[in-house]
Amino acid sequence: MLELLLQNLVNGILMGCVYALVALGLALQFGVMDIINFAHGEFVMIAMYLVFWISLYLAIPGSLTSLIVAPIYFVFGLVIYKLVIDRIVGTYPLAQIAATIGLMVLLRNLALAAWRAQPRGLQYEVLRGSVTLGPVVVPISRLTAALVSVGTMLALRWFLTHTRLGLALRATSDDMQAASLLGINVRRMFALAFGLGCAIIGIAAAFIMTFQQVNPESGLTWGLISWIIVVMAGLGGVSGVLLSGLILGMVEALEITFWDPRASLAVMYSLFILILWVKPRGLFGRR
Amino acid sequence: MRASDLKPIVALTAMLAALPLAVRMNNYYVLLLTWILYYSTLVTAWNVIGGLAGQLDLAAASYIGLGAYTMGTLLTRLDVTPWVGIPLGGLVAAGFAALVGYPTFRFGLKEAWYALATISSVVVLQKLFLVWEEIGGPEERYLPARYGELYYLRFRGYAPYYYILLAVLVMVLLLNVKIRRSKTGYYLLAIRENEEAAEILGIDVRKYKLRALLIYAFVTGCIGGIFALISGYLHPHHFDTWTSLQVAILGIVGGAGVGSIYSLPATTFIIYSISELLRSTLGGWIPGIHLIFYGVILTVVVLLKPEGLSETYERLYGRIRAALLRRRAGGG
Amino acid sequence: MTEAEALLRVRRVTKRFGGIVALDRVDVDVYEGEILGMIGPNGAGKTTLFNVVTGYYPPDSGRIIFRGEDITGRPPHEIAKLGISRTFQVVKPFLGLTVEDAVRVGAYNRLSDEAEVERRVREILEFMGLDRLRDRLCRDLNIVQIKQTAIARALATDPKLLLLDEAAAGLNPGEVDDLIELLRRVNREMGVTLWVVEHVMRFVMGISDRIVVLHYGEKIAEGPPEQVAHDPKVVEAYLGAEVVI
Ligand SMILES: Nc1ncnc2c1ncn2[C@@H]1O[C@H](COP(=O)(O)OP(=O)(O)OP(=O)(O)O)[C@@H](O)[C@H]1O
Ligand SMILES: [Mg+2]
Question: Is the beta carbon of C245 within 6 A of some atom in ligand 1?
Answer without folding.
Answer: no
